[in-house]
Specification:
By secondary structure, the chain is an alpha/beta fold. The chain has helices at residues 12-22, 47-59, 72-83, 99-114, 130-136, 156-163, 188-201, 218-221, 223-231, 262-279, 286-296, 298-330, 337-340, 352-362, 382-391, and strands at residues 29-30, 92-97, 119-124, 140-145, 147-148, 153-154, 171-175, 204-209, 235-240, 253-258, 345-347, 364-365, 371-373. It binds (2S)-2-hydroxybutanedioic acid.
Length: 394
Amino acid sequence: MFETLQAAPTDKILALIGLYRADPRAGKVDLGVGVYKDSDGRTPVMCAVREAEKRLLQDQDSKTYLGLAGDLAFNAAMTKLVFGEAGDPARIRTAQAPGGSGALRLVAELIQRSRPGASVWMSSPTWPNHAPIMRGAGLKTRDYPYFDARSGTVSFDAMLDALGKAEPGDVVLLHGCCHNPTGANLDAAQWAAVADLLAHKHLLPFIDIAYQGFGEGLDADAEGLRIVAARVPEMLVAASCSKNFAVYRDRVGAAMVMAGDSAQADIAMSQMLAAARTLYSMPPDHGAAAVRIVLEDPALRADWESELEDMRQRMLRLRVAFAEALRRQSNSDRFDFIAEHRGMFSRLGLTEHQVERLRDEHAVYMVGDSRINVAGLPEDRLDDLAKAIVSVLD
Ligand code: LMR
């Protein structure tokens, strides 16, 4: 059976976890996988989540099946967290999913059931797992330009130009906030222009929101999504709680569909759940139940929001301090964009070879396209790190 099988290529982001762990050098720096770290380099369980888990352990009296959509109260709380007051609740349906990746796949399956082989347009660059997930569901992928590496900003005219060539019924995948891997984001006016184009050209928006609260704040990070929701008849959303609730390994996410009317929303939801039944049947409960407890309890929710805000502020401080260190060490403004970007990532604009040299010569780990996880920056050694980066530049 397996004698002709070739080994699957390793995932470039996840492979870094193992490479970093195996490196014995003291002072190694992990700017790889997108996991929040505190100033001690730890990824702690958030206090509100820990408290919610205690309550769950105490109060949970059964582990019987919940059903294909998972925890319905979690789904309602997530819909509110993401959409706020935007979008018509009668037209939105939400299914709990195993993480943001599970939500992406569930939505992709719904697209495939509605329009087999549809084209999904995605930003160039995007998170490397987007295209495999879409293709895994049988969809086609197309690219739209997104990032101008020289200025570190969004190539907005080129993006609109490319999307203007999409066919009615094509799907457009957008990062809700904190673009992964570039850290360059659309502003409100750009979101409105994109939303108008989508509505005018009958394109279906599919918004991946995996870092809500990491950029400008919980509501501000959902503003673009909400602008789109107010201007289009139909849209799709994949949301993740991995980062903003730090429940990475518990796999907590939500797949959302907004349809033209309530009856169509019910049909779309039934298809999403039928797809879930064949993929994994029901989502894991524990993490979603903890998130639901946090979101429903005003005191716990306030604790969570304040801890999340501290994390966001820390990343902003690190951005500014690192841009300053790079300015000092390089005598140039080449890396100033780092302070302007938002979210967990920025791309430094190094070659793969330079990234390898940083790993081999300085024990600095980042993704091959020179994406850094800002939360991994060592606060007390930013100038050393900047010096190492400058040393591989030519
Ligand atoms: C990342 O981009 O590093 C994270 O989303 C983790 C992952 O699954 O790739």
